[in-house]
């Protein structure tokens, strides 16, 4: 049986297709390589996303706790402020002390002293609450900066093009 040119062309085309398939197979294996191919990149990105997600969840949890505490402290500060205003109003409405009391009962000086003491106490409580609020705000800022730094550090270890993360909290 004679070999026709058509048979030779089919054999050559089949050989070229076979070689091309082998080249494509090598390239696909290189892309799926988990050490330095696309698989490694996908794995690194997946790890970075997991780390950022965990950090974000933790930050949200702490921010929620601190927000609840801050709201409680603000309410207490408002109550203390109202009390200070009331005491100030009562102090302004109190009659002035007599220059030389003829027979001043000891009760007239005690309420003024009580009012002054209550005002000082309310002011001390208010200052304490303000200090607590400031401390909580500083802690929230520190935690968010730590979270951003951790996420940045994790992203830098896995990514060749890092994204800058920065804290957006400002403590006044």
Description:
The longest helix has 56 residues. The protein has a domain of 108 residues. It is mainly α and 172 residues long.
The computed structural class is mainly alpha
The radius of gyration computed from the alpha-carbon positions, rounded to a whole number of angstroms, is 38 Å
**Tally of DSSP β-strands:** 0
- Give start-end ranges of low-pLDDT stretches: 162-172
Tally of helical segments: 3
Q: Sum up the overall morphology in one term.
A: rod-shaped
Sketch the topology as an H/E string, one letter per element.
HHH
Helical fraction equals over 70%
Largest sheet: none
Please indicate the percent range of residues in DSSP E strands (runs of 2 or more). under 5%
Mean pLDDT: 78
Q: How far apart, in Å, are the first and last alpha carbons?
A: 96 Å
